[in-house]
Specification:
Helix content is 12%, strand content 41%. By secondary structure, it is mainly β. The protein folds into 3 domains: 39 residues, no CATH class; 212 residues, Pectate Lyase C-like, CATH 2.160.20; 191 residues, Pectate Lyase C-like. β1, α3 and β2 form a beta-alpha-beta unit. Bound molecules: 2-acetamido-2-deoxy-beta-D-glucopyranose (11 copies). One 2-acetamido-2-deoxy-beta-D-glucopyranose binds next to β4 and β9.
Amino acid sequence: MVETLTPSPSIWRLNPRRSIPTLFTSYKTLFALLWIVVFTSIFVWNRNFVDGFLIFRRPVTARSLPRFRPVAFNLTDFGAVGDGVTVNTLAFEKAVFMISKLGKSGGGQLNVPAGKWLTGPFNLTSHMTLFLDEDAVILGVDDETYWPLMPPLPSYGYGREHPGPRYGSLIHGQNLRDVVITGNNGTIDGQGQRWWKRYRQKLLNNTRGPLVQIMYSSDIVISNITLRNPPFWTLHPYDCKNVTIRNMTILAPLFEAPNTDGIDPDSCEDMLIEDSYISVGDDAIAIKSGWDQYGIAYGRPSKNILIRNLVVRSMVSAGISIGSEMSGGVSNVTVENVLVWNSRRAVRIKTAAGRGAYIRDIKYKNITFENVRVGIIIKTDYNEHPDAGFDPKAFPEIRDISYTSIHGEGVRVPVRIHGSADIPVRNVTFRDMSVGITYKKKHIFQCAYVSGRVIGSIFPKPCENLDLYDEQGTLVKKSVSENASDIDYDI
Ligand SMILES: *[C@@H]1O[C@H](CO)[C@@H](O)[C@H](O)[C@H]1NC(C)=O
Ligand SMILES: *[C@@H]1O[C@H](CO)[C@@H](O)[C@H](O)[C@H]1NC(C)=O
Ligand SMILES: *[C@@H]1O[C@H](CO)[C@@H](O)[C@H](O)[C@H]1NC(C)=O
Ligand SMILES: *[C@@H]1O[C@H](CO)[C@@H](O)[C@H](O)[C@H]1NC(C)=O
Ligand SMILES: *[C@@H]1O[C@H](CO)[C@@H](O)[C@H](O)[C@H]1NC(C)=O
Ligand SMILES: *[C@@H]1O[C@H](CO)[C@@H](O)[C@H](O)[C@H]1NC(C)=O
Ligand SMILES: *[C@@H]1O[C@H](CO)[C@@H](O)[C@H](O)[C@H]1NC(C)=O
Ligand SMILES: *[C@@H]1O[C@H](CO)[C@@H](O)[C@H](O)[C@H]1NC(C)=O
Ligand SMILES: *[C@@H]1O[C@H](CO)[C@@H](O)[C@H](O)[C@H]1NC(C)=O
Ligand SMILES: *[C@@H]1O[C@H](CO)[C@@H](O)[C@H](O)[C@H]1NC(C)=O
Ligand SMILES: *[C@@H]1O[C@H](CO)[C@@H](O)[C@H](O)[C@H]1NC(C)=O
């Protein structure tokens, strides 16, 4: 299991140093020559691979995998062993190192074939495609001594669970461009079980690491694979731009898998999340942007995010959340065509005094609840703080939120919007809502400090805080009690 960072022969066999004595006085010349040899070898090897394939036309060959980059490697080229026991960190690192030299010529692809590829954390590089074939499983080493510690995220000040440094992620990237993680539904499995247990037993001194974390990067695509059993959050794009997450399966146990959020867009802009199935032990999706005074100082919002065509499940938390860490602001989020089933909560906004910033221009469309306890939630007293240094007067602003075509059945509390005098919820719109309920009809559309409107007929009957309009948009009845409070957490 133990490995060192000493380069193994496979990568260095191309090194001409041993056979050329003292001919080269300058390291620069030697280095240039070394790279010429390496590149020639790569191209010859690639051509041979393709040619060999064509010439021999073996009747039974490995299916050729789609090629997204001019050069493709097989993880086994770097000495990896897919037996689920050998630790292959070095093979991944060598592959990434090779690809990091190919950026100018379109980058490189690393194919992970069928097998169980145990590895410690490793970093990606720009212009790279990581392709996981069918039945390929990347398994994270679950012994924390393999996991490097990294500084806290600047917008959190802390490692979320413990002060000070945090564990990095299994698959990590920083300051990258043009990265693709995809495949024929191969799997990245964080083997979180040991982490969850040690977290609950309070044996960890640092915050657990996410499964995949990409930071300060742009033009990222993650698609067509399965992610499961993360030690902590599953997929964490942090301060990124132009991220597409498509056709994914994200799985963790529904209980006793603490903080296994599915996807946490954090201070990101221009993101698309679509066509995926997420069933996890915390929020399926949680849009964030930093924590209290640290997030306010960092000041990077999450915005322009489109989430659509998902089926999600969360028994502990919620399907789609915004917050509670949102101190850089969250705006222009659309959530549409989402089914939330057998869950505790469906769509939730959570924040608290101390967060500052705003949540605005949020649109929910065509959301279906199937057997959920609480459908729509806005909670403004989610009082979890990094330390006592937050400003209790930093009130977030919450406004311009619309719920259109909300349907479903088996819902206990369809709506609970709990604003306060300090954090009122402004300009909420409901239009076309009919939800089958499982409880008495009174006090199930719960409101406090909410202003806004209901357009057309909706079921169940809305709270009195909202103005009523007909289908044509004509005011029927103006509310006189936007600050009335009818909240009951016991239902
Ligand atoms: C990768 O290498 C392994 C072992 O040599 C082989 O079984 C597999 O078919 C290769 N995959 C591709 C896509 O070349
Ligand atoms: C990945 O890169 C970051 C930033 O350079 C570094 O802090 C971290 O230790 C690296 N992780 C691994 C596993 O090498
Ligand atoms: C989704 O990914 C799977 C492989 O994981 C592939 O078979 C399927 O065709 C993809 N679907 C779409 C719509 O991309
Ligand atoms: C991908 O694999 C997961 C986990 O095994 C499975 O639930 C899902 O249906 C598969 N997706 C496709 C498109 O085959
Ligand atoms: C946590 O700290 C304690 C006390 O310093 C130490 O004994 C223990 O080994 C540490 N645990 C880990 C996982 O680093
Ligand atoms: C976003 O990233 C994708 C994938 O790398 C790329 O094709 C596209 O051009 C990028 N879009 C913008 C606006 O940069
Ligand atoms: C995902 O799979 C679908 C269907 O096979 C394919 O059209 C699409 O290009 C794949 N996406 C990526 C990035 O591999
Ligand atoms: C809002 O986000 C969408 C993506 O969901 C984007 O197309 C649109 O341009 C954004 N609107 C503004 C005003 O930035
Ligand atoms: C609403 O969302 C569901 C998925 O939850 C989808 O099947 C349906 O086509 C959507 N309806 C419209 C009108 O887009
Ligand atoms: C209320 O919110 C809607 C979007 O839901 C927006 O179009 C409208 O401009 C907002 N009204 C005010 C007065 O801000
Ligand atoms: C309701 O409370 C808000 C915030 O505290 C306040 O701005 C508003 O004037 C109040 N509205 C009424 C009708 O009292």
